[in-house]
Automatic annotation (TrEMBL):
GO terms for biological process: 2-oxoglutarate metabolic process. This is Dihydrolipoyl dehydrogenase. Keywords: Cytoplasm, FAD, Flavoprotein, NAD, Nucleotide-binding, Oxidoreductase, Redox-active center. Disulfide bonds join C49-C54. Residues 5-337 form the FAD/NAD(P)-binding domain. GO terms for cellular component: cytoplasm. The active site is a redox-active disulfide bond. Its cofactor is FAD. The active site is at H454 (proton acceptor). Residues 356-465 form the Pyridine nucleotide-disulphide oxidoreductase dimerisation domain. One of its GO terms (molecular function) is flavin adenine dinucleotide binding. FAD binds at K58, G122, T153, G154, S155, D322, M328, L329, A330, H331. It comes from Tepidimonas alkaliphilus. It catalyses: N(6)-[(R)-dihydrolipoyl]-L-lysyl-[protein] + NAD(+) = N(6)-[(R)-lipoyl]-L-lysyl-[protein] + NADH + H(+).
Amino acid sequence: MSQTFDIVVIGAGPGGYIAAIRAAQLGYTVACIDEWKNAAGGPAPGGTCTNVGCIPSKALLQSSEYFEHARLHFAEHGIATGAVRIDVPQMIARKDAVVKQNNDGILYLFKKNKVTFFHGRGSFVRALESGYELAVSGAQPATLLARHVIVATGSRARALPGVPFDEERILSNDGALRLQAVPKRLAIIGAGVIGLEMGSVWRRLGAEVTILEGLPTFLAAADEQIAKEAKKAFDRQGLKIELGVKVGEVKATKKGVAIAYTQASGAEAMLEAERLIVSIGRVPNTEGLNAEAVGLKLDERGAIVVDELCRTNLPGVWAVGDVVRGPMLAHKAEEEGVAVAERIAGQRPHVDFNTIPWVIYTSPEIAWVGQTEQQLKAAGRAYKAGVFPFMANGRARALGDTTGLVKILADAATDEILGVHMVGPMVSELIAEAVVAMEFKASAEDIARICHAHPSLSEATKEAALAVDKRTLNF
């Protein structure tokens, strides 16, 4: 017996569950299919972000930061703690509890918004005159009919060729979040977001961490000045990062993992570690979707081909998030999910990729939105730059964390903000002001004229805006 819905969403990650909720708010009958399972085998909606990505990694980052503060910094505040130790199983248990709270929250939101949830794997069966037939396999086998389908199946970790994840010694982000003890030596391949965040967690807890990065420059996507400032901070912390390397043979050994590689100088080297985290990017998750049954077009990477409105080559089939082009970011997926639901309803929402913020939750945090200085130079666009260091910010001094700076890039003629780049304390929160400003086509002068609370970290943004016009007040 089939069940009919206006819209069926495949995947309950950030793009999928948000699309389902928004579509239900707009008056459609909506179903959402998702196969993630918790430890007990029950439903765990939220996708990679909630289960093995954004949420659990932030929980571990917070725990490890508290540990490092207690071990190294409490004394300067007059707080005596004695010997400090880390209970890794308890830390992991807390992380799991945070994940479950988010899983349960999504299930509650489905119920609140009258979204019908199916726990299982969703796939296409065939195209119909008025829509599509879909199959749900797994815990809740079902046949669904839908006028519109939104595919939000996300992505999965990319493994090294010939080196599959065993999640014991060779780890993806999933295994890296489930370690029950601090490895003495930890190797990481890839100095991107996952590599830096996981490296930061386990370094703080006592691991000797070495990150091998194939690119010759550190954080090539970020503004060069910001990347250099971040690299200096990581070097001081003892996070060893080797750039421009070529990874060779990776072998599991009795004691862990051995990685042969060529250094940027051309010298051959061997890195031995108890555990290896591979963080070399992610690939679109379209396996098992049965795309060929309906002729859904995929590109050479396995991603679903969509236009600027997230429409596929099939009428009534849409796709959002990591499974399509664009940055693999949870908040990008959410914006696309909302936009698709509203487009189905005949509205005209807009998602501007240039104002999607990027954040790396290390210490110092790194965040940016818009164009970098090197991009503006390459485009030949005349610009002005304003920089303000956190060392001159009163709130940062009170926090005891004055690492980093805020940098604003503005058009030389119009003063329109073209990019904002930050490295320092809590910049994951500060970047929102820059996103709002850029969405409203604000000038650097606009931010410079806005009253910011004192003392606050946000004053660094105001001062950077003042610095664009060479009139900073506190530096």
